[in-house]
Amino acid sequence: MSDIGTRTPATPSAPVSVHDLDLPVVPLDARDGTRDETAEIYHSLSAESWIARSQIGFSILHYDDVTAILRDKRWHNAVAKLPELRGITDPAFIDRPPSILAAEGDLHVRLRRLVAKAFSPREADRLRPFMRDVVHDLVDDVAAAGRADVAVDICEPYPIPIICELLGAPREDWQLFSRWAEDVLRIFNGTALDELDVIKQAQLELNDYVREMIARRRSDPREDLITQLIAAEEEGDRLSTEELVSMVNAVIVGGTDTTRNQLGCAVGVFCDHPEQWALLAERPELAPQAVEEVMRYFGAVRGTGRFASEDIVYRDILFPAGTFVFPSLASANFDADVVADEGGVNTFDITREPVKGRTQMTFGSGIHYCLGASLARAELQEALPILARRMPDLAVDGEIEWKPQTVAIFGAEQLPVTFTPSVPRS
């Protein structure tokens, strides 16, 4: 393995700039192939070095380095720089105040502190019975046929009623939420510059809807997330209306497309491992381990971005202020020491226990660790055992159509399957 960037004893000389290093290069077409082809490219790069040069920055490939950079507060979330990266100059995208996804420093600490209780595992657990009902209702619609497009019939609609329940929104508005989430998230795609009108319109509609919900909850508080966020207070500090709008937007957008795509990725993996699907149906108590393994093996969020807020020296290499790095969560998840058993990282095994200190990285790490991780885990833990039990003998029926590699959150567009039919619930 290359020793590029490895630590060396301190010397009086200045550290070498990362821009001057002879590094392996991520091919321009690395994301044009299939998931397996892309994974093979990054696997090969990872075997050569912990860092590689990419089109607009540097890819970080090894688990320890990905974790170190994500936990270093000098590396700021590149979400704030997305318009710049995409060549977007529209003030509507440039001048808006930072959300919790992009906030840094004292502002991020404040926002996270105020909302932490509302996103606790306890709050997610409160919704588990509702999650089970939603999954059963979706399976009921296809159970007798023994055939379904899992991506369209189950994954796409699954998280929206749960988000509606969480926020206290009418369930019939799920289609609006679904469209807004999909369109707003286009800002993360490589095609964002061509879709600004769609993104802006969705954001305006979503903001108006959320402001109306907040106004109603101020006069009519209920047992829902918006009421909790309005009431959130610490040492006399509260969220402003605009901060509330931003936070609810983050919940709707971040809690929708991620969950539906991760569930599709999970079912796709299980289609390739029918013995694991049968095992999950037989032993639903394995759901927590199954979720962690699926997110390690095939995460819907494969990477993230950071930029140096100041000159940073890491591994005796200088990363000048403004340098972009892209920690590869997918590559980190396949580091050899991420699993402890003999099966190795290329084996999919829902019975394995996560290695202490080496949990799957799909939720990220550091101060921007996924705020909705508890909710996402609960949704997946409830859905997968029910699907495994009620859709036995699952098999792909034709071809899985995956989303283009240029999307920020990967998943299946179409996932046609057959399974042994069953009688819908009464």
Number of helices: 18
What's the name of the CATH homologous superfamily of the largest domain?
A: Cytochrome P450
What is the CA-CA span between the terminal residues?
60 Å
Main β-sheet description: 5 strands, mixed
Task: Looking at this protein, list some descriptive labels.
five-stranded mixed β-sheet; globular; 2 domains; Cytochrome p450; 15 strands
Question: Your description of this structure?
Answer:
The protein is α+β, with helices and mostly antiparallel strands and about 425 residues long. Helices cover about 45% and strands about 10% of the residues. It is built from 18 helices and 15 strands. The strands form 5 sheets. It has a 5-stranded mixed sheet, with helices on one face. Helix 7 runs parallel beside helix 18. About 0% of the residues have low confidence.
Put the structure in a nutshell.
The protein is α+β, with helices and mostly antiparallel strands and about 425 residues long. It folds into 2 domains: about 1-95 and about 300-360, Uridine Diphospho-n-acetylenolpyruvylglucosamine Reductase, domain 2; about 100-285 and about 365-425, Cytochrome P450 (Cytochrome p450, Orthogonal Bundle).
Reconstruct the topology from this structure.
Layout: E1 16-17, H1 35-48, E2 51-53, E3 58-60, H2 63-71, E4 75-77, H3 82-86, H4 91-94, H5 105-115, H6 121-126, H7 128-140, E5 147-149, H8 150-155, H9 159-167, H10 174-184, H11 196-219, H12 225-231, E6 233-234, E7 237-238, H13 241-254, H14 257-272, H15 274-282, H16 287-297, E8 306-308, E9 312-314, E10 317-319, E11 324-327, H17 329-332, H18 373-390, E12 395-396, E13 401-402, E14 412-414, E15 416-418
Parallel strand pairs: 1-10, 3-11
Antiparallel strand pairs: 2-3, 4-8, 5-15, 6-7, 8-11, 9-10, 12-15, 13-14
